[in-house]
Amino acid sequence: MMPRAKLKAQKVEAANALLDGRALPQGGAWITRARSDAEQRVRDMGLPTKRDEYWRYTDPRRLTSADVVAGALHDTQGEAPAFDAFDRVKLVFVDGVFDADASDPMALDGVEICQLSQAAMTDLHWARDIYGALEARGQSPVERPLASLNTAYATEGVLIRVTGKPAKPISLIYQRKSETSDAMVHHVIRVESGAEATILENGPFATRFNQVMEVDIADGGTLHHIRAQGRDHERAGSAHFFARLGAGSHLKSFTLTANGALIRNDSVIWLDGGEGSAHVAGATVGDGAFHHDDTVFITHGAPRCESRQVFKKVLRHGAVGVFQGKILVDQIAQLTDGYQISQSLLLDEDAQFLAKPELEIYADDVKCSHGSTSGEIDSNQLFYLRARGVPEDTAKTLLVLAFLAEALDEIADPAYAEDLRARLEAWFERRG
Amino acid sequence: MAVLDETQMREGVDRETVETVQSMAGTYKHGWETEIEMDFAPKGLNEDIVRLISEKNNEPEWLLEWRLDAYRRWLTMESPDWAMLNIPEIDYQEQYYYAKPKSMVEKPKSLDEVDPKLLETYAKLGIPLKEQMLLAGVEGAEEGRKVAVDAVFDSVSVGTTFKKELAEAGVIFCSISEAVQDHPELVKRYLGSVVPQNDNYFAALNSAVFSDGSFVYIPAGVKCPMELSTYFRINAENTGQFERTLIVAEKGSHVSYLEGCTAPKRDTNQLHAAVVEIVVLEDAEVKYSTVQNWFPGDENGKGGIYNFVTKRADCREDRAKVMWTQVETGSAITWKYPSCILRGDDTQGEFYSIAIANNWQQADTGTKMVHLGKNSRSRIVSKGISAGHAQNTYRGLVSMHPKAKDSRNYTQCDSLLIGDKCGAHTVPYIEVRNASSRVEHEATTSKVDDDQLFYCRQRGMDEEEAVALVVNGFCKEVLQELPMEFAMEAQALVAISLEGSVG
Amino acid sequence: MLEINNLHAELEEDSGVKILKGLSLTIKPGEVHAIMGPNGSGKSTLSYVLSGRDGYEVTEGSATLEGVDLLEMEPEERAAAGLFLAFQYPVEIPGVGNMTFLRTAVNAQRKARGEEELSAGEFLKVVRAKAKELQIDAEMLKRPVNVGFSGGEKKRNEILQMAMLEPKMCILDETDSGLDVDAMKLVSDGVNALRDAGRSFLVITHYQRLLNHIQPDVVHIMSEGRIIKTGGPELALEVEENGYADLMAEAQA
């Protein structure tokens, strides 16, 4: 067999080995169809390997293995979780399982919320048009079998329908209490026409997690998504964020990642209607055994849309940061404004930055640019601060925070940005 | 013109360019064929053909084994599928792998013995500059700068000019088949040392069947007294061209090498799979410039050359320097990534590229800068222009290995779109594995600026002239890196390649 | 020379936005006319419509240069016919040398008119002499078109192009904007040197001060896409003193 056919056969074989004998969860007609379609997708695609183009910088084995690598819990030394100070509707998952006792009631003006496990038992639900549908769409042009695996087997998650402009954010909190937990969570969010909401996510999730969030924003809708992925070192996970935007709708999605043995975040965004905007940003700090991968795919499928990708990574002691980002502009998407920046600051000789920032453009009247840089702290800036009497460590922290600020600035509400910035500052101070 | 200063010379060049463009009204200029009796090997590819090619070139046993090894590896390999190219299935058994003008069966002792029809062919081509006169040995052509030429017609070298003068400087410039006979120790030492036989599918194919190409050896401390040039021409139908070029620059030597290519117009596609290997030793400098103008196919996408080329320079020792400059305007499909292995400390690699794709052309081209040595430097400037239904991709790798401390890369990658049926894509790979190295990559994509076009037209230029002017401006950073004669040729080509793309 | 009759034009993009609403104007050979008017009165649109920039649709009326219909021509044909627009915001063209640009333009026009092209030597001689008058040094001629030029340098470069192309009808669109006093004098001297019995000018400006340097024969006041008042140089002084408000009110009454 020639090499490519052989590789494909191995991938399919691995998928079958993982899935054979594993029953799909019980559920109503709509979700059973979605799950069995997704299971078939996994079998057809096979499991990802490092030889796949979009896994060339990240080894997916820890995410696809039958067994979870056990990992110690992290002592946060009393640091309050992210967003603790904000008034919000709290929905708590412990090791990926919804904890009703720890959560607030699912009641908020302008929003309908229900658990996936409940909705799945009915035969009809508004989420049937979205659950697994955006994930399936996201399999082209790049295969994402981990997301299909999630669609097929996840039983936890919430379905959120935003019909107005709720006064408070909805906060999804992921606590980790087990050293061997293996979580699969699938959320669906529908933002109706003209509605606007903020979704917060925070916490270390589980020892291994596979998360999918599917977001459908109707014409004129707005969603703010702010995520802080906890601080546990010994865990691994994959999070897929699929979002479809209607005409004149807006999305802002920000992710803070600190620590973790292996974290892969995929964002797949489609600008389907004209005059929409999508901003995806991330700030990453990694120290030691840390491998973090942001893979972003924004498709401009309609005219006059704007997109921004802003990713900043600060790495040291062998930490590895990966950025793979694409702006794809369809032929119809004239007057596109696309921007992408990915930058890393390597604080010592062991850190690595691996990037593939892509443009794929089929329309001529566009303005698209991207930039990518990697380097160490600017010695002139450092000297300038020290010459003014700032101690070296303080000066470095100052410069690193300034470097990360461009990503944090993508958060619309400065109160959340400040909350995360303060956490970053504490992270650096603890390390000295 | 002699009294004018350098800037005025430039201006003069530009003027001539505009005139040349006007005189070249339309269509591919080198689309005729030469009727010469050819000696073909049978169609198809197998071990016997590989043996036959080796035998025809009277090669030593080790080279035959080397070729067979490559062929066997090739059989287990697959055509790469990662480029943004739609490559039709190629039937490798429907190609001729060896074609040689009959008059060349007995190698001519001097250029006087070269078939006049061959020389006529070069006269007709007319580019770059006065090569055909040099080829024909016209002494009067030497008044300007001297350029030594090795001309490769289909599979074989038909003659090299200025051999004697070069020999006095100790420079070896000959066809690779001659080098195998006359300098076997050099060929054996360096062949495949930069691009191994199994480097990739097309390099393996080339290693198995290459029939000729150029060989350059610059001894230590020698600054090559003239520019060296190879001129490639595919003439025979259904014939693949698989030339192999090997350049060795010894310690402290300098050389500038130019490469030009054309092919006749044909309805069928023709295959070109070349390999260029450059070995650069301590303090040596090699500048390699290409103007690639293979037949691109007609305006409906019929015919054209499939150009799958592996070019790589190995800056093997400290302070070695290499510079690639390419103007890619031809070929139906271009798959080409001239690369630099910056192995020594303080080495330098540069890549300047203009890639123009019009009508139904597809280009996937760029470079690799592999930094292994400390304090190594690289610079990439890529200008891509897409028009018609063409797809044009920049693909590049910048890799900073852990030991390549204090290295630098700067990449600027701009794309221009003309019309809404074409595509422009940028696929950089950036791998930084040490902190003291600095990598900067910038890319932009935009269309030809309407305000600029209107400004030119208000001053009286027609639309095509305005587009050519603006696009030449867009490419300036790269054009100015070319030797003067090539710069003129390239400017004219930019304009010709874009004909029919506006209005 | 230039005859504009009942010209109506609107934006192509936001259809229905009418900019010129029945503008009429006649400029005889050798005359200098000035058009003044408040922002948004349609002054720049007039210059773009006459020179043939995309984005405007002429819905009614006519414009002729020496009896030839301008509106049917491509921009380069209008240029070859002798129409020159000095841009309010001269366009930057990276990578294209100023000299290359000039010679390409000069020769394109000569060719269009069936004249012989200038040789490199002749061209250089002429351009050097004219550049010197405008205090444009060799360095500026080498640089790419308008790239990195100051406001004053850009405007001087426009006048240099005008001098080289020797048009019959010159439109100066807010040539005074962004100029200090010295630069304005230099530019005006350049323009005045080109005044000739066979050459006419249409000077579009917001302020009267340019007209101290370039003395007009006729002054028009433009408002809401039409000429609302025409007079001699004294009209410009009146505007300088009282503003446009009175004139506009008068026109509406």
UniProtKB/TrEMBL annotation, chain B:
Membrane-traversing stretches: none
Biological processes per GO annotation: iron-sulfur cluster assembly
Pfam families, alphabetized: SUFBD_core, SufBD_N
PANTHER family according to UniProt: FES CLUSTER ASSEMBLY PROTEIN SUF, UPF0051 PROTEIN ABCI8, CHLOROPLASTIC-RELATED
Name of this chain's protein: Fe-S cluster assembly protein SufB
Family classification: Belongs to the iron-sulfur cluster assembly SufBD family.
NCBIfam families: PRK11814.1, sufB
Domain SUF system FeS cluster assembly SufBD N-terminal: 163-224
UniProt-listed InterPro entries: Fe-S_cluster_assembly_SufBD, SUF_FeS_clus_asmbl_SufB, SUF_FeS_clus_asmbl_SufBD_core, SUF_FeS_clus_asmbl_SufBD_sf, SufBD_N
Positions of the SUF system FeS cluster assembly SufBD core domain: 232-474
From TrEMBL, chain C:
Keyword Chloroplast found: no
Domain ABC transporter: residue ranges: 2-249
Keyword Membrane: no
InterPro entries, per the entry: AAA+_ATPase, ABC_transporter-like_ATP-bd, ABC_transporter-like_CS, FeS-cluster_ATPase_SufC, P-loop_NTPase
Gene3D superfamilies the record matches: P-loop containing nucleotide triphosphate hydrolases
UniProtKB keywords: ATP-binding, Nucleotide-binding
GO molecular function: ATP binding; ATP hydrolysis activity
Matching Pfam families: ABC_tran
Family: Belongs to the ABC transporter superfamily. Ycf16 family.
Protein name from the UniProt record: Fe-S cluster assembly ATPase SufC
